Amino acid sequence: xxxxxxxGAGYIGSHTVVQLVAAGHDVVVVDNFSNAKPTVVPRLEAxxxxxxxxxxxxxxxxxxxxxxxxxxxxDAVVHFAGLKAVGESVEIPLEYYQTNLDxxxxxxxxxxxxxxxxxxxxxxxxxxxxxxxxxMREDLPTSATSxxxxxxxxxxxxxRDVAKTDERWRIALLRYFxxxxxxxxxxxxxxxxxxxxxxxxxxxQVAVGKLDKLRVFGNDYDTPDGxxxxxxIHVEDLAAGHLAALTRLGSTDERVSTWNLGTGQGTSVLExxxxxxxxCGRELPYEIVGRRAGDIAASYADPSRAQSELxxxxxxxxxxMCADQWRWxxxxxxxxxx
Length: 338
Ligand code: UFG
What we know:
Layout: E1 2-6, H1 11-22, E2 26-30, H2 40-48, E3 53-55, H3 62-71, E4 76-79, H4 86-91, H5 93-113, E5 118-124, H6 147-163, E6 170-176, E7 178-180, H7 199-207, E8 214-217, E9 229-230, E10 232-234, H8 235-249, E11 256-261, E12 267-268, H9 269-280, E13 286-289, E14 298-299, H10 304-310, H11 318-331
Parallel strand pairs: 1-2, 1-4, 2-3, 4-5, 5-6, 6-11, 7-10, 8-13, 9-14
Antiparallel strand pairs: 9-12
The structure holds uridine-5'-diphosphate-4-deoxy-4-fluoro-alpha-D-galactose.
The site of uridine-5'-diphosphate-4-deoxy-4-fluoro-alpha-D-galactose has 20 residues, from helix 7 and strand 8.
């Protein structure tokens, strides 16, 4: 298939591009490089063994999005592009709603107009909101605690409504838990700008000496060691989940399918820290501080629907995730070059 990957230069997008090409798909990337560096492209080409077609523009530019679809025929779209920092979304909500929604509107309009009805969308476990029971199942009601989270809830709803208007639509809503790790080559990985918000890149930067110590947000949760638990999933397993979903869209009769992509396993903040210490071979400094606003005690998937319907399951352990994250961080202490 010829597959358009929006946000294909980003963290999850780049890993998925490598697997799509390896599976024989003809991949075209569109990315505005607002949170990705162009230097990822030659690295992707080295991994895929050939030139990669990359279009650098913002999907919210409806004319450019429309022109791309006029020039090229796509069989499917994997839509990663969007803003994704929870805290930042509270500071600049309009930016988040406008960027994430407008880009999706422009994309879906162009798809409809040009007869492309297969879409895999990057949703998030954040759509389960604050009070969801664990393990989280796809049939739970959705809500959110941040503007970022609401953009995911809203886009899911937009896509469900659009799917009702044409029987050809086949849409996958993939709800990611906590993606971490990097490609085993150590040449591509997550490169957050500024101080990382997320746990794993923060620990990796402590390990490489860029940050002085980890602050553990709360040890008074109702969990075995008191620190919050999350379902960390290796980005390579996550990328494989996209391929499985794309394949499944070719045979399902459902216009919209929702799949959790997680391991089903909760790991605490301290367990992640200790697994990373084992990976990098030394103790890492940390201190316990107060809870972070908006955090919940435990979030992990019930991944059984993806297992039975996609024949997909996450296979990599927390040790694999830390080893690969460390390989990437050690080889690229400053992330991608400018
Ligand atoms: N944590 C720390 N110290 C840090 C960073 C994080 O203790 O410096 C803790 C957090 O309190 C939390 C855990 O590590 O308990 C994981 O935090 P992350 O920020 O890595 O991940 P979250 O679960 O908060 O957020 C992730 C994604 C969001 C998504 C959310 C819900 O980053 O995009 O899951 O699905 F919205």
